[in-house]
Amino acid sequence: MLTQDAVLVLNKPKNMSSFLAVKLVKKILGAGKAGHMGTLDPLADGVLVIGLNKATKLFDKFLNSDKEYISIFKFGVETDSLDLDGEIIRTDNKVVSEEELKNVLKTFIGKQQQLPPVYSAKKINGKRACDMAREGKEVVLQPKEIEIYNLELLEKLEENAFKVKISCSSGTYVRAIVRDVAERLSTCGMTHAITRTKCGVLCIENSYTLEDLRAGNYKLIDINELTKE
User: Whole-model pTM?
Assistant: First the structure.
């Protein structure tokens, strides 16, 4: 049984909830207690910081850390969940150019009010918004102040599909960024992929897959290393 109070940087696979990822890590490592430090959408992959044993008390430290993502923005189609998991609710035939997108991305740098996606883990009277939406109930969310530090267009993948690097504050929804960027471009949009590449100082280059854990090929970060001033 693992008794060390430590943090694991997991490279969470796609199509897996953060809850299930934590459950598997806890079982594989034999930890007495485990918890993630900020959820990652089931369809997203990448950095999921997991506290083991007493390291779970570092929850606020990582939950409030800045984040970095690489996402594929797809314009001309929108789903109710703003990703590939939802039902198509809108299409548009506008073709977005690289130059046009670059110019609009610049306008999103800085502090702003962001409306979370309806399909999110935000709670309304103790119930998750996404669960209410799936039940067909009305979901009314309030905007929240977030900050976007940088939006960098990495490459055009195909017509209306672009890879974008995002540096932002905690609490920022990538799916909401795509929605809002599309609106400013006078079209609609959604994300086709989201990879979290950094959470605070912890990055994907130093993360481990579930296969690594099962093979014993991993290194934990002791709680004392993360609590040093």
Answer: 0.92
Give the position of tokens 């997108």. 101
% of the chain exceeding 70 in pLDDT: 89
Residue 41 a catalytic site member:
yes
What's the count of helices (H) and strands (E) in the chain, helices before strands?
Answer: 7, 14
- The residue written with tokens 């199509």 in the block is 15
DSSP state of 81: T
Q: Please report the pLDDT score of residue 118 as a whole number.
A: 72
Judging by DSSP bridges, how do beta strands 127-128 and 123-124 pair with one another?
A: antiparallel
Helix (H) or strand (E) segment spanning residue 78:
strand 77-79
Q: Please count the other Cβ atoms lying within 10 Å of the Cβ belonging to residue 70.
A: 18
Q: Is 11 exposed, middle or buried (0-12, 13-18, 19+ CB in 10 A)?
A: buried
Pairing of strands 45-52, 189-199: parallel
Q: What is the three-class DSSP state of 202?
A: strand
User: From the candidates 41, 45, 66, 80, which is the catalytic residue?
Assistant: 41
Bridging pattern class, strands 161-168 and 123-124: unpaired
- Collect all residues with Cβ–Cβ distance below 8 Å to 136 and sequence separation of at least 6: none
Structure tokens at 32: 């007495």
Backbone φ and ψ for 218, nearest 5 degrees, come out as -160, 165
